[in-house]
Backbone:
């Protein structure tokens, strides 16, 4: 018999806990689920469950994240090249996940306790608010790239926010009032949102309040990482911006995308002071966004943004940020395989992305 290594044993136990927890949540719902029952289903001790997950809520988020991440990615679709059709197809993909009024199976209702659990405390509510902002930023940037050539597109993030508001409301009503939500009416309404004039524009951060990026000359040796938005290896060696943002500061990444040169990669490294508890929630949100985008937006229109779940802080450490929290806001500019600029605090993403060392390929530092 081949003996498993310690790491293999830990991974096997984690998988058994997740499978057992899914069965428990499906059968009993989140509130009535018991850690002791999960341990018994997994044929492990209660301590073994807690050695993998800090609590029942973190375990619930992890189960939901695994559910979405393990589902086969739908093939890319090309429903059209306009914000209207993209929003309609995005809504169609979103609504397809909702439980039907006639569906009483536990599996179909596995995620019904998600929002109540998020609302339970600021510890989860604040990160989820920022993750929802990230959804709107990514979707809005994609809609802008689909706008008709030759016409002014403007910023469409508020359009995306309004569409997400409608879809989140439909999700909650589908859970609270089965049969009330009429999916085809929601689809038509979301499609029309693309034509609304919401006076949306991008305001550059007040430069008097933004500290300029500091010129540096440091080695850049990034770890291997996955772009969770596309579920493929992240491109980290080319010129671009690495934004290391805690879960309370995610929306600042739009500053980097707007300010960076057109050919520069922008990478968002999501970090947290409590990754065991909150990283699964981030994984779930990004995985759902990826699935919906694949069914609504051609890959050519996806924004030039990568998202890395930097749970262990390896990418942050490579960028010279040894300690992270949910309030972390640091960005570095990469040029010719070196870190050429560094910025911290409010406006860091804008400062690093607009730094001369990035826009001139490092020539300004010579």
Residues:
């Amino acid at each position: 018999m081949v003996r498993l290594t310690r790491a293999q044993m830990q991974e096997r136990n984690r998988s058994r806990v997740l499978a057992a927890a899914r069965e428990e949540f499906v059968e009993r719902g989140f509130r009535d689920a018991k850690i002791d029952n999960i341990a018994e289903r997994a044929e492990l001790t209660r301590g073994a469950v807690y050695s993998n997950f800090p609590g029942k809520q973190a375990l619930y988020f992890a189960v939901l994240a695994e559910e979405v991440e393990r589902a086969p990615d739908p093939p890319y679709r090309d429903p059209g090249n306009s914000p209207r059709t993209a929003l309609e197809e995005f809504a169609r993909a979103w609504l397809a996940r909702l439980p039907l009024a006639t569906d009483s199976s536990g599996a179909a209702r596995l995620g019904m306790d998600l929002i109540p659990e998020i609302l339970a405390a600021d510890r989860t509510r604040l990160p989820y608010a920022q993750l929802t902002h990230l959804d709107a930023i990514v979707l809005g940037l994609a809609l802008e790239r689909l706008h008709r050539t030759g016409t002014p597109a403007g910023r469409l993030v508020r359009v995306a926010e309004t569409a997400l508001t409608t879809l989140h409301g439909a999700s909650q009503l589908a859970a609270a009032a089965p049969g009330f939500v009429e999916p085809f009416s929601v689809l038509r309404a979301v499609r029309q949102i693309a034509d609304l004039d919401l006076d949306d524009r991008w305001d550059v951060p007040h430069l008097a309040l933004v500290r300029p990026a500091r010129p540096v000359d440091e080695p850049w040796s990034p770890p291997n990482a996955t772009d969770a938005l596309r579920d493929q290896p992240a491109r980290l060696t080319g010129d671009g911006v690495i934004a290391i943002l805690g879960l309370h500061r995610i929306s600042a990444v739009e500053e980097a995308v707007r300010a960076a040169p057109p050919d520069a990669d922008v990478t968002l490294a999501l970090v947290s002071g409590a990754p065991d508890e909150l990283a699964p929630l981030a994984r779930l949100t990004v995985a759902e966004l990826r699935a919906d985008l694949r069914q609504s937006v051609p890959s050519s229109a996806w924004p030039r943004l990568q998202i890395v779940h930097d749970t262990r802080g390896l990418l942050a450490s490579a960028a010279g940020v040894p300690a992270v929290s949910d309030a972390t806001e640091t960005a570095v500019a990469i040029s010719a395989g070196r870190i050429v600029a560094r910025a911290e605090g409010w406006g860091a993403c804008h400062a690093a992305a607009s730094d001369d060392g990035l826009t001139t390929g490092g020539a300004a530092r010579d």
Summary: The chain is about 50% helix and 10% strand.
